[in-house]
Specification:
The chain is of the alpha/beta class. The N and C termini lie far apart (81 Å).
């Protein structure tokens, strides 16, 4: 008997099912209701509701049963975990699928980075779907490790696990009709095209949507999100480690438009994934903010599956995979069990799935060329432009201040919280070094640095003095990528990231421990930011307003052009 015939016979009740989940309160995201029933599962798929004979019965005793959760946009590299360790962190929170953009791997390793992601995400209790990075590099204003063209995208768009083309960050290039950007949209024709348009409004947004962009995850205000929604764009409500936009966007939602929204984390650290949660955290925030629980779960499941055309995911109904979560309280959503294709893969916070075979790690990517004098800033007339951090956001402000000058050099001014920032190209040994100043870290001494620096992922360091800044750079090179805190020439904490300078090869528990140590060290140095290293990682992101620093110098991210450090 063929597989389809077998399932049909089970669905008719002619043959026993493999599993029967009895006495479940099914959160039906298709009908928008909760109904008490039994759920029959055979060969990993749901075959029917009702009273079935089964070889094994699991009595849920009135617990809720909902589809497992889906992240609509996530950079898995941002967790600094390999895919198997990421699964270990999120599966206990009910995650069953994620639409990922390996943008960071691609900026460092090119197509090899995407291939590594596709290989390393196989045979896990999370279904990973890849959006092909469209902006490598993000802009010409930074030096990445690779370049990906529309022709490159065409080579991989046909893969079954490729859901489309990822965030088009060069939004001016799209609405201005630049051929290279339009070619990337054309390469993804027939699949999803993700957007990335912070603050884009009016006629330019009209043009951006007209070009074929179908989603956006960068809205920070209701007005911005509503305008994009009116143009037919799917809104990804973002709640990450530093990009916490969800609560501000909740007033957007109503009974008529919620189906056009999904949850996304974008970037979230390992510790936050474990301790705070993943998409389940977004569900709780939404419910607490007044969103109906069923609506919140629709946003977390079927909406995302439909938008990205994820077949047989996102709902509990015949033909769908038996991917679901068990929980007891509809308003205080806490996942008790996670099932993948009918198999229990997590229970009471404990990960139960087996780890797959280890995938070979990519090549080393640390190729530095610099001189100590490259980080010095000679004094000049006029005020200096300073990057000002906005807490819990990746956008920044530009402020202009009178610089502190010592020995004819502009130096950090700890009393005013103006610290030196250095970015060094690390992929091709170009010798490019960008130097600027930043306010918001509040370091009193020492320096912190990382090889995670969106999107080109060059070395980025912030510090109170040149000696500690240089020590950080030296140690990052020794680690072959990582994050480090230094004070008075001594290492306070460090995490090696040998996988493309982005990801640790260590187990989840060890990575969390080292991240905690790094955050504690930064705090000891005076920093009061919730996620100092993730904040640091976004200060080189040239497409995000207002002022950023790359290896090529200070960037006016509003106008997407280089600018001067001194204002004369």
């Amino acid at each position: 008997m063929c597989n389809v015939q077998q399932k049909l016979s089970v669905a008719r009740g002619d043959r026993p099912a493999e599993l029967l989940f009895k006495n479940a309160q099914v959160v039906n995201v298709l009908s928008g209701e909760i109904h008490k029933t039994h759920v029959a599962v055979d060969d990993g798929r749901i075959v029917g509701f009702g009273d079935y004979k089964a070889r094994k019965t699991i009595n849920l005793r009135g617990a809720y049963l909902a589809p497992s959760l889906i992240d609509g946009h996530f950079h898995v590299e941002s967790s600094m975990l390999t895919a198997p360790e990421f699964a270990r962190a999120v599966v206990p929170h009910g995650t069953g699928a994620a639409v990922i953009d390996p943008h960071e791997y691609a900026n460092v390793l090119g197509l090899d980075g995407i291939r590594y992601v596709l290989e390393s995400t196989k045979n896990l209790p999370v279904d990973f779907f890849v959006m092909l990075p469209s902006c490598v590099p993000a802009t010409p204003l930074e030096t990445a490790g690779a370049r990906i063209t529309a022709d490159d995208l065409k080579l991989m768009i046909g893969d079954d696990r490729v859901a489309g083309v990822a965030e088009l960050m060069n939004f001016p290039g799209v609405f201005l009709g630049i051929k290279s950007e339009l070619a990337k949209i054309e390469a993804g024709k027939g699949k999803c095209i993700d957007g990335h348009a912070p603050g884009l409004r009016g006629k330019n947004l009209n043009a951006y949507a007209l070009a074929g962009v179908r989603s956006d995850h960068e809205s920070v205000t209701v007005e911005e999100a509503r305008e994009k929604l009116r143009l037919g764009m799917h809104i990804l409500l973002r709640e990450g480690s530093t990009e916490r936009n969800l609560q501000h966007l909740l007033p957007l939602l109503n009974a008529h438009n919620a189906q056009n929204c999904s949850f996304a984390t974008d970037d979230k650290l390992a510790g936050d994934l474990v301790n705070e949660g993943h998409i389940d955290h977004a569900v709780r925030v939404a419910i607490k903010g007044g969103v109906a629980p069923i609506t919140a779960l629709q946003i977390a499941t079927i909406n995302t599956a439909r938008h990205y055309r994820l077949q047989n995911l996102g709902a509990i109904a015949p033909r769908f995979w038996a991917d679901f979560v068990v929980f007891d309280d509809l308003k205080n959503f806490r996942v008790r069990q996670t099932y993948k294709k009918g198999v229990l893969v997590a229970e009471d916070g404990k990960y139960l799935a087996r780890s797959p075979a280890r995938v070979p790690l990519p090549r080393s990517t640390m190729n530095l060329r610099y001189r100590p004098e490259d980080i010095r800033v000679k004094a000049a007339t006029g005020k200096t432009r300073v990057i000002e951090i906005i807490p819990d956001q990746i956008v920044t402000r530009e402020v202009q201040v009178t610089p502190r000058i010592e020995a004819r050099e502009v130096v950090a001014d700890v009393e005013r919280d103006i610290l030196k920032m250095v970015v060094i190209e690390r992929h091709r040994a170009t010798g490019n070094v960008g130097v600027g100043f930043v306010r918001g870290f509040k370091l009193k001494h020492g320096a912190i640095g990382s090889t995670v620096a969106h999107d080109a992922h060059n070395v980025v360091v912030v510090g109170t003095n040149d000696t500690d800044i240089l020590r950080v750079i030296e140690e990052l090179e020794k680690l072959q990528g990582g994050q480090i805190a230094v004070a008075n020439g001594k290492i306070k904490a460090a995490l090696g990231l040998p996988v493309a300078g982005l990801v640790s090869d260590r187990p989840l528990a060890e990575v969390m421990q080292r991240i905690d140590a790094l955050n504690a060290a930064a705090q000891e140095l005076g920093c009061d930011l919730a996620a100092p290293f993730m904040t640091l990682s976004f200060l080189s992101l040239s497409p995000i307003p207002a002022l950023k620093l790359t290896d090529q110098g200070l960037i006016d991210a509003t106008k997407l052009r280089k600018t001067t450090l001194f204002v004369r």
